[in-house]
Write a structure and sequence with these properties.
There is one protein chain. By secondary structure, this protein is of the alpha+beta class. Among the domains are: 206 residues, Lipocalin; 266 residues, 3-Layer(aba) Sandwich (Rossmann fold). The chain is built from 11 helices and 39 strands. The strands form 9 sheets. Strands 32-33-35-34-36-37-38-39 form an 8-stranded mixed beta sheet, with helices on both faces. Strands 1, 2, 3, 4 and 5 form a 5-stranded antiparallel beta sheet that branches. A hairpin with a 4-residue loop joins strand 2 and strand 3. Helix 1 runs antiparallel to helix 11. The longest helix is centred in the C-terminal third of the chain and has 18 residues. The radius of gyration is 26 Å and the shape is globular. The mean pLDDT is 95. Bound molecules: the ligand CC(=O)N[C@@H](C)C(=O)N[C@@H](C)C(=O)N[C@@H](C)C(=O)O.
Length: 708
Amino acid sequence: MRKIEEVISLYRKYGCLAEPLKGYISNQSKGDNLILKTQWKQTDLERIENIKFSKNYIVRNGQPNQFEVQSSNIVTENNELWNKESPSGRLNVIIRNITTKKEEEKQYIEIWDHRQKIKNYNITSLEKHGKICDPDGQFGSVCWSASEKNLLYIAEKKKLKTVSYFDSKPNKDDKDEEEKPVKGQEHDYIDDWGEQLVGKTCPVVCILDIDNGDVKVLDNILDNHSLGQAVWAPSDSGVVFTGWKNGPYRLGLIYCPIRESAIYYWDIVSNKCERLSDDTRCSALPRFSPDGSKLIYFDNDIGGPHYQCARLLMCDWPSRQTSVIVDIVKEPTVKSFPGFYVASLPTKCWSADNSRIILSSVWRSSVSLVVVDVKDKTVTRLKTNVKGDAVLMDVLTDKLLVKCSALNQPPYLAISSLPVAGQEGEITICPLDEPIPVPGISWEVQTFSPTDRPHSKFGALNYETILLMPEVSDVKPPLIVFPHGGPHAVFTEGYMLYTSCLIASGFAVMYINYRGSLGFGDNNLRSLPGNIGDQDVKDCQAAAEEVVNSGRVNGDKVVVFGGSHGGFLTAHLIGQYPKFYKAACCRNPVINLSTMVGSTDIPDWPFYESGHPFDHKAALNENILTDMWRKSPIRYIDQVEAPCLIMLGADDLRVPVKQGREFYRGLKARNKVTRLISYEGNSHPIIKTDSQADAFINMVEWFKKYLQ
Ligand SMILES: CC(=O)N[C@@H](C)C(=O)N[C@@H](C)C(=O)N[C@@H](C)C(=O)O
């Protein structure tokens, strides 16, 4: 293992690489020449901040899949919330966040042509709505009308002004009723959508008239709903959007596409709103075909596992007839299509001839490009000529802009071509910049079939691990067992900074996609709820023992690391197998399911994952309390021997700091070696520039100390 000074310099090197955030193929692209507009981020550890910059490319499409690339100069922008060109490519909109000298936050919508800024609207001063939602966020979207006369965006609904009962400022009589401030409600609790959506209470659809700056706010078209993901309907006849039901109270929405939601259409002429999707399902991610004849979206159950296998549906726009294009896949084979697991979709995801959809989806332990023919409802995996994950960023005239990465390869952008229908086999990825891999990392995916522990309902299911090894190691490396969180999430063959730095520091790392992970079929995913703390723990331990018994790692130097549900598994593993692990590090761990219920933004999660039904009226009782305790790591705290480092995001609403603190106190009271680090300004993900770097070095130091 490297010295800590070397680990720090490794992190400085790999932790500050530029990473592509988003990009699109410009509508100005013509024939052979593609114009790509991309936005990047880069960590600056000296300034302790993430900077953002844009980069444009001209790609000449010579021979098929042979592209000549020129990249433009780099322009930095940190206050740009979004930059999107109009359908013709003639105009660009920039939504800008400005903090004034008086520390006021103002938002502007700027319209640019090829020469200069031609309009600049101070949206905040209009006082028509609250803050504009991040277009990349849960609710966000920014969409030009086909006419290029209007811009669709999502903003927080305007909140009532409130004043004290003792406010003596005279009420201006000219104010209409809803403008008059309300007395005595300044301290009312305002329900919001929870983790990373604090203050997001009721987003609404807004329409800006590009020419005169008027803003129309659609804040009364759908009662008691939050609106988002809005797109223009064909011929700008109205707006299609996703509506999430607000009441009776909101449950955390991020990472939880199971909150009651439906797809709606608001007609601009009638001002009427109609629901397009099934109100017994959760629907989201509406996308029109280029000719406007078809609308697709995804749906899954309301409630249940927080990520699920989703259905792909298509609405024939003229007739509004809706059909299922791709259904849930309950039990795929190791090689077959495992179903759709989609957290987001690029704005454009259709082939030029309106017959196919292209997207990225989890496919066992990787993220793959997938093509769906909406006529014959076939699903084809697009294999690429590079290892790792391929995430679709944009499609235009059957050219694909793809974000690629691998376990040893930081993310880069590439261009490729969609094969003709029926011949979707392997595609050639053409990088826009020369990929620079992290040297010395090899890996292999292993499949486990725990036939000795079949699931009571679904029988023999399998799961996978990814074992990453340092290529150059004169001794058997120590092993970090690394289960993912969720639990309905997955570790894939894409790049992760922490992992590449751990390997480069001399550790072996084993990702564990235990049963219940995404990408292995719906039955696999649903096998875990009700069995957490047992099935997932045993899956992790079986995999860890297998790799130790294989002699490839130093079995006397095994440690474990995990975040959130991965932290839950970490705490379980050191409690249930106290002699096996020499040290542990858990980030925002779930420690006690019953005490999580009253403080998390997702109280349905501890109920559902421990096998108990949930609705908004759900309350703990003696039976549930006992069962939750039995499934929680706190149950095994007396057995813990491994020194345990606990890292918390001080603002975490998902797994509140009380969980980690409960574990810390229990360990301290039992004279166990433990340390708790609380990172201010971080929520569930500990990703602030300095915090993320500090957490990594502290974790490596902790492991090195107890592996000596
Ligand atoms: C997949 C997922 O994130 N599920 C949500 C319900 C969730 O936030 N789960 C947390 C308990 C968790 O484990 N989150 C993981 C993904 C993490 O590492 O933050």
